From TrEMBL:
The keyword Membrane does not apply. InterPro entries: 3oxo_ACP_reduc, KR_dom, NAD(P)-bd_dom_sf, SDR, SDR_fam. Homotetramer. Keywords: Fatty acid biosynthesis, Fatty acid metabolism, Lipid biosynthesis, Lipid metabolism, NADP, Oxidoreductase. Pathway: Lipid metabolism; fatty acid biosynthesis. Catalyzes the NADPH-dependent reduction of beta-ketoacyl-ACP substrates to beta-hydroxyacyl-ACP products, the first reductive step in the elongation cycle of fatty acid biosynthesis. Gene3D superfamilies: NAD(P)-binding Rossmann-like Domain (3.40.50.720). It catalyses: a (3R)-hydroxyacyl-[ACP] + NADP(+) = a 3-oxoacyl-[ACP] + NADPH + H(+). It comes from Desulforapulum autotrophicum (strain ATCC 43914 / DSM 3382 / VKM B-1955 / HRM2). This is 3-oxoacyl-[acyl-carrier-protein] reductase. One of its GO terms (molecular function) is NAD binding. Residues 22-207 form the Ketoreductase domain. It comes from the Bacteria. Its EC number is 1.1.1.100.
Length: 259
């Protein structure tokens, strides 16, 4: 005779803390740091949504790498600077799965120049992507997390937002603002079993930093090298893990000791 399962057993099997039951969204994950984060989250068993705007080829490469490694995921195309697109995309994920457990706000751009030469559009473009993009995606996501009483939000900020960087007033302002938003939101949602943390990379080997002359910068880094995207991804995965369930409102630097 078949024994009826205890409902509590089913509840335990579907615990949101189990990565195999989690849905993750990583913005800007078609290349670089975002791509590494998506790969590492998928390697832990999470179903990962790979966000892109124009770089569909890179997003497909991310998905192919995930699937080759035995992971699960799919592409989702939307612009984080567009509040309508962002809200509709998050809503589509939640409608399909009934939950969104992990959000990594990684999408970001630079438009570097000295402040005296910076056009208003260069300022606004960076703020819109790096800071307002966080708001556009996180607001609908956190509503769903509150209902489920579980969530892990990790924001990718920058050492520039902590120490400043000449020629990056717009970028530093956007990333410093993201740190403040991380700490404030963490206080708002902590009682709902939602953690909000930030990972702050220094100089990491990406397309963005390859354009820079880093010889003198590397001399100033105590570890005398640039970082790797996977080292940033490891910090993100830690914040999403059960081991970090009592950590919220924190900024973890992955910067070789430059700060």
């Amino acid at each position: 005779m078949n024994q009826q399962k205890n409902p509590a057993e089913n509840e335990i099997q579907a615990l949101p803390e189990d990565p195999a039951n989690q849905i993750a969204l990583v913005t800007g994950s078609s290349r670089g740091i975002g791509q590494s984060i998506a790969l590492e989250l998928a390697a832990t068993g999470r179903y990962v949504y790979i966000n892109h705007v124009r770089n569909r080829e890179g997003a497909l490469e991310t998905l192919a790498a995930i699937e080759t490694a035995g992971g699960r995921g799919e592409l989702i195309c939307f612009d984080v600077t567009d509040p309508v697109q962002a809200e509709a995309s998050v809503a589509a994920i939640i409608e399909r799965h009934n939950h969104l457990d992990v959000l990594v706000n990684n999408a970001g751009i630079t438009d570097d120049m000295l402040m005296v030469r910076m056009k208003p559009e260069a300022w606004q473009r960076v703020i819109d992507t790096n800071l307002t993009g966080f708001y556009n995606v996180t607001r609908p996501a956190v509503k769903a997390m509150i209902r489920k009483r579980f969530g892990r939000i990790v924001n990718i900020t920058s050492a520039a937002g902590q120490m400043g960087q000449a020629g990056q007033v717009n970028y530093a302002a956007s990333k410093a603002g993201l740190i403040g938003a991380t700490k404030a939101l963490a206080r708002e949602v902590a009682s709902r079993n939602i953690t909000v943390n930030a990972v702050s990379p220094g100089f990491i080997e990406t397309d963005m930093t390859r354009k820079l002359a880093l010889d003198e910068t590397i001399k100033a880094i105590p570890m005398k090298r640039t970082g790797r995207p996977g080292e940033v991804a490891a910090a993100v995965v830690f914040f999403c893990s059960g081991e970090a369930s009592y950590i919220t409102g924190q900024v973890l630097g992955v910067n070789g000791g430059i700060i």
